[in-house]
Amino acid sequence: MIDLGNLNAEELLASEKIGDVILAILNRHADPRQTLARIFARLKPLEPEQRLRACRLLVILSAKRNLSDIVIEGVKEMAFLIDPMEDTFFRRLYEKGLTEGEEKGIEKGEARFLLLTLRQKFGPLPAVAEEQIKSATSEQLESWITRILTANTLFEVLNS
To answer: pLDDT tens, 99-127?
Structure first.
């Protein structure tokens, strides 16, 4: 079995085969953004459909090295070459990211509301309580928020 991370990135990037160039994303990089810029430079001259397939593959492979965020960022920068909203694959990624962002925003808002309300009712909160609230799920936050009205202590709100 070959660990693609151990292949020579320079050789892959210099290859005439676009598939080899894309595989360079799997190598360990001193500067992944620089490697990605070189990959995108090689993708720019491709025909639109071929470039689109290459970008899809690049996004999929980049997840193996936890580089999806910078790859998607790079695809956005290539928007003049690829309209992510016209491609089902990229549109789904965008919509998934948007939904996840909205959910995180709602959770942050719930946590902030809970922290402000608890501080108002009980005074300064212990650091452990603040950390518990900040790392809670939306369901847990909602449960705690409803308990604020009837609880006499911070313990009654956060422990049931």
So the answer is: 888 888 888 899 999 999 999 999 999 99
Higher pLDDT, 156 or 52: 156
- Answer whether residue 98 shows pLDDT above 80: no
| Domain range summary for the chain, segments of one domain joined by + | 4-82, 101-158
Q: Which residues have CB under 8 Å from 122's CB, separation 6+?
A: 153, 154
Which residues lie closer than 8 Å to 64 by C-beta, 6 or more apart?
A: 26
Buried b (16+ CB within 10 A) or exposed e, 22-59: bbbbbbebeebeebbebbbebbeeeeeeebbebbbebb
Q: For residue 133, which phi and psi values (nearest 5 degrees)?
A: -70, -45
Q: Are 5 and 23 in contact (CB under 8 A)?
A: no
In this structure, what is the dihedral angle of CA atoms 85, 89, 90, 95, given to the nearest 10 degrees? Answer: 80
CA nearest 77: which of 33, 12, 47? 33
